[in-house]
Structure formats: C-alpha cells, structure tokens
Amino acid sequence: LGAVHGPGVKLVVDDAKEATEGGNGNPRETSGFSDTGRVRDRDMQRVVNGLWESGAEAVSINGQRLTALSAIRAAGDAILVDNKPLVPPYTVLAVGDGERLSTRFQNGADGLYLHALQENYGIRTAISVEKDVQLSAAPSVIVRTAQPSTEKGTS
C-alpha cells in the first residue's frame, strides 16, 4: 500500500496520569481490557477496528501504517504493531471524510468504549478532524505459499 494523504481524523490515546507514575498492581491480571489506567493492545484494537468500521480508508498508529495483515498485540507492558514496540501517547491517524468519521466513531460501540475508559479509568483521549493527514506507505508484504513435493518415495 502506497503513501496516502487527505482529510481525516487524529485520535490521541494515552495512559491515565496515575498509570504513568507506577503502581503496585499487575496491569495484566484481568481479561485483557484496561482496568488500571493503562492503554492495552485490545483497547487499540477496538479503536482501530472502530475507525475502519466508521469509514476510514487508511489508518496508522504512531506512524506505523496498518494493513489487513497487521497485528496489534502485547508483549509485557508494550503494545506492538507488526512486532514494532510503540510508546504512549498513541497517535492514530485515519484518512477519510473527517466529520463523518469522527461522528460515526464517537457514536459507535468502540467510540463509546473509549469514552468509558476515559470516564472510568482516566485514560486520556482527544479526537480532532484534520484537513490533511499523511500516512506513510505500508511495508511490502511477501506472501509465501507451499508447493507439493514432486519427489517420489518420501512421506
């Protein structure tokens, strides 16, 4: 996927202030959703999926362009996008009809989920409509396939 630019939204998601000051709790003790004021991989998965569902044409997190094959996951306390660690705040850029994208996201299930994280756990969020957001090209993907063996007598 090549570089793209156009109107869209900028969404910044950050840990709660208390979460950045450390603490005694284990942030991974529950089912994987935020309960300590730390943004988790599943929170970012919901944000990204909500933006796609709301009409985003292209999405990136902290400059990492996402594709249909991108993985957002956790490794310890880090959130990884395609095995590259990201640090908060997480800046999500999405290309699309900015006003419509913002409204549909905020009124959809994933936008309401993000709002609940803000209200209940102090996760910091800000969304803005942008006239021009620029997303870099996605890294090229080499798709490999298996071929049947043509050698006889091996199993």
Q: Runs with pLDDT <50, length 5+?
A: 22-33
Overall SS class = alpha+beta
How much β-strand is present in the residues? Answer: 25-35%
What is the CATH H-level superfamily? Protein of unknown function DUF881
User: What percent of residues adopt helix (DSSP H or I)?
Assistant: 25-40%
In whole angstroms, how far apart are the ends? 40 Å
CATH class type: Alpha Beta
Alpha carbon gyration radius: 18 Å
CATH topology: Alpha-Beta Plaits
Order of helices and strands: EHHEEEEEEHHE
How many beta-strand elements? 8
Count of alpha/pi helices: 4
Largest sheet: 5 strands, antiparallel
CATH architecture: 2-Layer Sandwich
What is the mean predicted local confidence, pLDDT? 86
Strand order of the largest sheet: 3-2-7-1-8
Number of structurally distinct domains:
1
Global morphology: globular
Describe this entry's structure for a reader:
This protein has 155 residues and is α+β, with helices and mostly antiparallel strands. It has a single domain, classed as Protein of unknown function DUF881 (Alpha-Beta Plaits). It has helices at 17-20, 41-53, 98-107, 109-121; strands at residues 4-14, 58-61, 64-65, 72-75, 78-81, 84-86, 90-95, 124-135. The strands form 2 sheets. A 5-stranded antiparallel β-sheet has the order 3-2-7-1-8. Strands 4-5-6 form a 3-stranded antiparallel β-sheet, with helices on one face. A hairpin with a 2-residue loop joins β4 (72-75) and β5. α2 (41-53) packs antiparallel against α4 and α3 packs across α4. The longest helix has 13 residues, at 41-53.
Annotate the secondary structure layout.
Layout: E1 4-14, H1 17-20, H2 41-53, E2 58-61, E3 64-65, E4 72-75, E5 78-81, E6 84-86, E7 90-95, H3 98-107, H4 109-121, E8 124-135
Antiparallel strand pairs: 1-7, 1-8, 2-3, 2-7, 4-5, 5-6
